[in-house]
Specification:
Family: Belongs to the CD36 family.
Subcellular location: Cell membrane; Membrane, Caveola
Strand content: 25-35%
Number of helices: 11
Helix content: 25-40%
Number of strands: 15
GO molecular function: lipid binding; low-density lipoprotein particle binding; scavenger receptor activity
Keywords: Cell membrane, Disulfide bond, Glycoprotein, Membrane, Receptor, Transmembrane, Transmembrane helix
Largest sheet: 13 strands, antiparallel
Structural class: alpha+beta
Organism: Carassius auratus
Radius of gyration: 36 Å
Oligomer: single chain
Distance between the termini: 59 Å
């Protein structure tokens, strides 16, 4: 038995209406389902295999690239001339990070210590760790500034100690020793007679205390009760705030531990995090949208106020006493050593800083820090954190090793910690947290479009069928009146015709 076109049309209208209804429901329900899926995947929960493993054992390539400012004119600096430096690097180290001592608490927080190890990657470096460079000797020039207010006889004694241990104002040593430490009798002497001056009792190196170490005990929120708090720091080493700085705001421990952030970020969001290495909380701001390995991201960068002094940015007054904008003194949390943190090459710093040292050429592409983050999940896709270590040097009376050095904040090294999600982790992340939600989002529009198309087609089919049926039921309607008249004409002819 043949099915009429009208019946088919009615069925299509019903199916199309159901498709439109389902698509409309998805418009309202779909985002809720997607958000719920994201929440389940980003909270710190051992049952979430993907996100928990990414959080616990960072499975992506992570590198630290180090650049030294090799001193070209050491003798002239001692005579008071402007320092001239040449950048040497990068010397690249593969960085391994993992969390240990993980303990979950009843208040929806988890405590852990994150450990780190570094392995030299010669294939990615300009040379090897045996390359020799010349930088300021922190043990001499740094200690001289630290002791400048001590009685003159003490300064003379310190200078005599430098001479007896053959320590001069500069270090000319292999990269490996400058990085990870070298034996020094002066270190033993300073630790014995000036305890607490140095951060180490063993070998002395710029990163000696970093390798095979941890960043302290973090306690962060898991997000299981409130996803907006996931990864946010509850305490660090048991502290809710630090006491390094001069204002309550500057001493606050804000944000995350600097690896992941809460989901559902917008262009108005900021990215706060606490850095134990910088002894303070920092905050990045939105710059622009982008795409990283096929995944939509927001780029967040350091605001110009990050290292501004109190005069240029009053909220930073608590980090003072300050010098020019662009410098952060970490003296209060680094054993009183006259060390400053800045952007590489004094990028975005006061132009005066560039005038005091020859050889610096700052630019955003090479020296600006950024994080590309997937805003829906709060997971960084591409990270480049760049910082510079500087030492305040100057002539100190009674310490002959300082000569006539003009007071200057001297760049020593800058380093970049970079990483990006790639390989199987990227594919899994893209499938679970990008592709599937995107497919669900598109499905709602596909159902609505198919439903409307089906309804439109069914209506056209129904109307066409009705018109055809009407013509079949009334065939005379298709007869031409003029032709009927012509056929009857012979009946009207006269006999004479």
């Amino acid at each position: 038995m043949a099915v009429s076109k009208s019946t088919v049309a009615i069925v299509c209208i019903v199916l199309g209406g159901l498709a439109v209804l389902f698509g409309t429901v998805l418009v309202f329900v779909g985002p809720v389902i997607i958000d719920d899926q994201i929440v389940k995947n980003v909270e710190i929960n051992p049952d979430n295999g993907l996100s928990y493993s990414m959080w616990k054992d960072i499975p992506v390539p992570f590198f630290m690239s180090v650049y030294f400012f090799h001193i070209v004119n050491p003798d002239e600096i001692l005579k008071g001339e402007k320092p001239t430096v040449v950048q040497r690097g990068p010397y690249v180290y593969r960085e391994k990070r993992w969390k240990d001592n993980i303990t979950f608490h009843d208040n929806h927080t988890v405590s852990y210590k994150e450990f780190r190890q570094y392995f030299f990657e010669e294939s990615m470096s300009v040379g090897n760790e045996s390359d020799v460079v010349t930088i300021p000797n922190m043990l001499v020039l740094g200690a001289s500034v630290m002791m400048e207010n001590m009685p003159f006889p003490v300064r003379l004694l310190l200078s005599s100690s430098f001479k007896s241990f053959n320590e001069g104002p500069y270090l000319t040593k292999p990269v490996g020793e400058l990085m990870w430490g070298y034996d020094s009798q002066l270190v033993d002497f300073l630790n014995k007679y000036f305890p607490g001056m140095l951060p180490t009792r063993g070998k002395f190196g710029l990163f000696a205390e970093f390798n095979n170490s941890n960043t302290g005990q973090f306690t962060v929120f898991t997000g299981q009760d409130n996803i907006r708090k996931v990864h946010m720091v509850d305490s660090w080493n048991g502290l809710k705030r630090v006491d390094y700085w001069r204002s309550e705001q500057c001493n606050m421990i804000n944000g995350t531990a600097g690896q992941m952030w809460p989901p559902f970020m917008t262009k108005e969001s900021t990215m706060p995090f606490y850095s134990p290495d910088a002894c303070r909380s920092m905050e990045l701001v939105y710059q622009r949208p982008g795409v990283s390995r096929g995944i939509p991201v927001y780029r967040f960068v350091a605001p110009k106020t990050l290292f501004a002094n109190g005069a240029d940015y009053p909220p930073n007054e608590g980090f003072c006493p300050c010098r020019q904008s662009g410098l952060l003194s970490v003296r209060s949390c680094r054993h009183n050593s006259p060390v400053f943190i800045s952007h590489p090459h004094f990028f975005e710093g006061d132009p005066v800083l560039l005038d005091t040292v020859n050889g610096l050429r700052p630019n955003e592409d090479e020296h600006g820090l950024f994080i590309d983050i997937h805003p829906e999940t709060g997971v960084p896709m591409n990270v480049s954190i760049r910082l510079q270590l500087n030492l305040l040097i100057k002539s100190v009376s009674g310490i002959s090793e300082t000569g006539k050095i003009a007071e200057v904040v001297m760049p020593m090294i800058w380093f970049e910690e970079s990483g990006y999600i790639d390989g199987p982790v990227l594919n899994t992340f893209r499938t679970n947290l990008v592709v599937l939600p995107m497919v669900m989002e598109y499905m709602q529009y596909i159902f609505i479009a198919l439903g409307l198309a089906g309804i439109l087609g069914a209506v056209m089919l129904y109307v066409n069928d009705k018109v055809k049926s009407r013509l079949d039921d009334h065939p005379s309607a298709d007869v031409n009146p003029s032709s009927s008249a012509t056929e009857k004409t012979p009946l009207l002819r006269t006999p004479e015709s």
